[in-house]
Amino acid sequence: MSIVEKAIRYSMIYRVSSHILFWLVVFIVPQYQTDMSIRDMLIQNLFYVSFYMMASYFVAYFIIPKFQKGEHYLIVIFYFIMGSYLISATSRIMVVYMLEPLIRTPPYSQEPIVEILTDLRKLITVYFIQNFSLAWIFGFIKLAKNQYLTKQHTLQLEKEKAEAELNALKAQLNPHFLFNTLNNIYSLSLVNSPITSSSIAGLAEILDHILYRCNSNYVPISTEVNLLENYIALEKIRYDKRLNVSFDHTIEQDVQVVPLILLSILENAFKHGAGEDIGDPRIAIDLTVQAGTLKFKVENTFVGQKEHEYTKKIGMSNISKQLALAYTKNHEFRTYISDGRFVTLLTISNLTSDDTRFKGKDTMSFS
Q1: How would you write 145-208 as a 3-class SS string?
Q2: pLDDT (average), residues 71-88
Q3: Is residue 119 domain-shared with residue 58, that is, in the same domain?
Q4: In this structure, is residue 24 part of a structural domain?
Q5: Which SS3 state, helix, strand or coil, does residue 336 take?
Q6: Is residue 338 part of a domain?
Q7: Distance between CA 306 and CA 323 in Å, rounded?
Q8: Do 70 and 216 fall into the same domain?
Q9: Which domain holds residue 41?
Q10: What is the band of 287 on the pLDDT scale with cuts at 50, 70, 90?
Q11: Other C-beta atoms lying within 10 Å of the C-beta of residue 91
Q12: Is the separation of the CB atoms in 123 and 96 below 8 Å?
């Protein structure tokens, strides 16, 4: 946190004391004169600070807010001229009739109040310049503080909006996945398959992950790997030996990732690849996490349609939006066709881990 941010935070928490501190600093700066005693100098400083405060609060809390609200400029300028005149005239009257009797030795002459009020030249060249020179600095500080707070408030709103959109995307994803999985189990139950119970057990583990382990914005990559393995095993029951799936993963660090994104990519491969390939569907999955960088690559075969038609149909807008919200500047997500296979490639960099002790290397194949 910078010094400016610390100062602004202090002024927010201790608003009154920060104002007192500011004017105390102004007060102790001497209006030095060689023939003036310390007592007279302190009295004079006290008067001058009171004039500065009148001008400063008038500019910072009356004039500037009216400009910011977009009120008619001519009216605001009129308010400023009238206020400046009243403050300058008041300060001159206080100097002549209150300050000078306290610090000057009689006899001395005093200007009549009418003369003070009509001597515009002296009010402008002496008292306006003297009182409002600090007022503009005070007003600038207040304006800079307001702009900083407005910016921080805007950033907080954008962050909350992004989190809300991210949660909405997750909410759209989970029912979609559950619907497909329940359809698979329903199909098994229709034929009284003996593996129905194991399918339900596998689904229970997936539900446990989705309902209880994905409540936070980020989860360890190791739990996502377990989820992918359970999902593959469940889909393998559906396709039996017709489907060839390979899942290779190398995890050197248990980094934190947004939950369910990898599953979403894999689910698309099953839905639009294996689910529509009545021949010999193949899905190859490769996951590596090294030096804080995650690379996830999924290849699946597809048949029965032209490449551009398949690419248009596959549509991963939800995944793209979710990645854009979670990893604004440190990810790459692309899809392409290579050798008759649809390839999805995700790379996320600068990932961190709460537990850097996790290391492992596993290779698993389902065929």
Answers
A1: HHHHHHHHHHHHHHHHHHHHHHHHHHHHHHHHHHHHHHHHHHHHHHCCCCCHHHHHHHHHHHHH
A2: 91
A3: yes
A4: yes
A5: strand
A6: yes
A7: 28
A8: no
A9: 3-156
A10: very high
A11: 24
A12: no
CA–CA separation, 122 vs 362, rounded Å?
Answer: 87
pLDDT tens by residue, 264-278:
889 888 877 765 555
Q: Would residue 116 count as lying in a domain?
A: yes
Gyration radius of the chain over CA positions? 36
Same structural domain, 109 and 222: no
Can you say how many angstroms the Cα of residue 92 is from the centroid of all Cα atoms in its chain?
Answer: 50
In a domain, 183, yes or no: no
Residues 27 and 147 in one domain: yes
Task: Report the alpha-carbon distance of residue 92 to residue 257 in Å, rounded.
Answer: 68
Taking the CA of residue 174 as centre, how many other CA atoms within 13 Å lie in the half-sphere pointing to its CB? 17
Residue type present at position 287: L
Instruction: Name the more confident of 350 and 268.
Output: 350
298-323 pLDDT, tens digit per residue, is 998 877 555 555 555 555 677 888 88
4 pLDDT more than 70: no
Amino acid symbol at 154? T
Residue 241's pLDDT is 73
Residue 363: what pLDDT?
43
**Is 339 within 8 Å of 348 (Cβ atoms)?**
no
Domain count within the chain? 2
